[in-house]
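Researcher: Here's a chain I'd like modeled. Treat it as a single chain, no partners, no ligands.
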Amino acid sequence: MSAANDKTPHPRTQAVHHGSRRSQYGEMAEAIFLTQGFVYDSAEAAEARFHHAGPDEFIYARYGNPTSRMFEDRIAALEGTEDAFATASGMAAVNGALFAMCKPGDHVVAARALFGSCLYVLELLARFGVEVSYVDGTDLEQWRTAIRPGTRAVFFETVSNPTLEVIDLRAVADLAHAAGATVVVDNVFATPVFSRAVEQGADVVVYSATKHMDGGGRALAGVICGTRHFVREVVEPYLKHTGGAISPFHAWIMLNGLQTMDLRVRAQAESAAAVAAALHGHPRLSRVIYPGLPDHPQHQLAMAQMGSGGTMIAFEVAGGKDAAFAVLNRLRIIRISNNLGDAKSIATHPATTTHQRLSDADKAHLGITPGLVRLSVGLEDARDLIDDLVQALG
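Model: Modeled as a single isolated chain. Structure tokens:
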């Protein structure tokens, strides 16, 4: 895509146009190339392509596909990285980014506050001989102590799931880079709309595209963004041989989701701010956690790092699990599910679902209490969501 006067287009424009590939038919909408293989003009052409495939030359859908490549090019442009590799799910992205770069004897430092499946991937790394050290993500002194010369990578969620801690990306990146470590961040809660992760020091950014990129709860997908060397020389060989690549159909869904992502996410974040403000101080709630609220411990950092409180809220219902379940079961508009970033608002009880594998001690340490509810704010009218929550709490 070219732009007038060679000016870089606004991200909203890139999300609609960047990386488009049109066939000889000149289709307006992105095409779905539902094929697992590709035809060569000759045996010599096949040999040449296997030796070195160009950017628009494909071998097998597990290696790459025109629809998948459009999605990769578009999200790389939005994220500000040289390249990207699309995966079958967000966890395939986390697994691919970490396993592709680590070997037995390497050292990884990770934040404790992570999605349960991310913690499982780190457990797998440890089984294969990678030393993993855990720190409280918001404590820079713990990062400083844990990172050492030879540390291979640091890994954390820029905004933690589900307690919405905001980690100082630039400060941790400076500590990691001083030791020669690669900074890998899961940026799902920050979203590509509010993210400036690479500008702030991230080397590798992973997403579950299932969330805000799709936005409609339709399909699984993930993506790894980074330098061209990391994506094509480190990540791609691992994922193409282990089978973690995205399907062309799901890549097509994500492409269509990207076109409206900026509008959707900004509207969701605006509603989330209104909902959080309305819940704040409610007598049935022990606490309301939202980075956009002034009393959030990292409020100023969140505003500097993202410029928004995001689309996610957490709140603790007084009375523990039974009280939280009672509130969830009284909701009329907001649905109970474990996804997030959907057009529909979704409530989750992390202690018994997404983080149920953690010990009670670990849950307590991370603030995942029996009364905690995670709320992903959708595209419904904010007043309707507030009314729904108030009647459920009442």
